[in-house]
Design brief:
It is flat and about 55 Å long. It has a four-stranded mixed beta sheet with strand order 3-2-6-7. It has a three-stranded parallel beta sheet with strand order 1-4-5. Helices cover about 20% and strands about 45% of the residues. It has three helices and seven strands, in the order βββαβαβββα. It has about 140 residues and is an alpha/beta fold. The chain has one domain: UDP-N-acetylmuramoyl-L-alanine:D-glutamate ligase. A hairpin with a 2-residue loop joins strand 6 and strand 7.
């Protein structure tokens, strides 16, 4: 592990998302369509996008703060929980009411990704959110 003489304070600005994994086995084909059926045996969720950067900086011993735009949904709550678990403040998260917080799900069978599906808003953030980012007062 890297040892710092002083704990660095770092601000991360970027897209936050949840990386969601469904792990299992494919041992049959669906009778409804010619596709594999994944028998899910395990599920996991981790911080993705800028959240992955935050997690890595935290693991190196940094004090991290974040500015990002998220939706007002259950995925946002999950994201905040994961950030709080690694002592990252969520007070600078900007909420857009009609935006989906990004969640990218991967189906994994026998250590091989079979499918990925994304549940997200692909439009740019609003000009109101851009202004909120630029006007954010933060102290690290």
């Amino acid at each position: 592990m890297i040892k710092f003489s002083k704990i660095p304070n770092i601000l991360v600005i970027g897209d936050l998302m949840i990386d969601h994994y469904l792990w299992g086995k494919c041992e049959r084909i669906s009778p409804e369509a010619p596709v594999q059926v994944l028998n899910v045996q395990r599920e996991s969720s981790v911080l993705g996008g800028a959240g992955n950067v935050i997690n890595n900086l935290y693991a190196l011993g940094s004090k991290v703060d974040v500015i990002s735009v998220i939706g007002d949904d259950l995925v946002a709550n999950e994201l905040k929980f994961l950030l709080e678990k690694i002592d990252t403040p969520t007070s600078n998260l900007i909420i857009e009411k009609n935006r989906k917080t990004s969640k990218k799900s991967r189906l994994i069978a026998s250590q091989q990704q079979v499918l990925r599906y994304d549940n997200e808003t692909i439009e740019n953030i609003s000009s109101k959110s851009v202004n909120a980012i630029l006007e954010t007062d933060f102290v690290l």
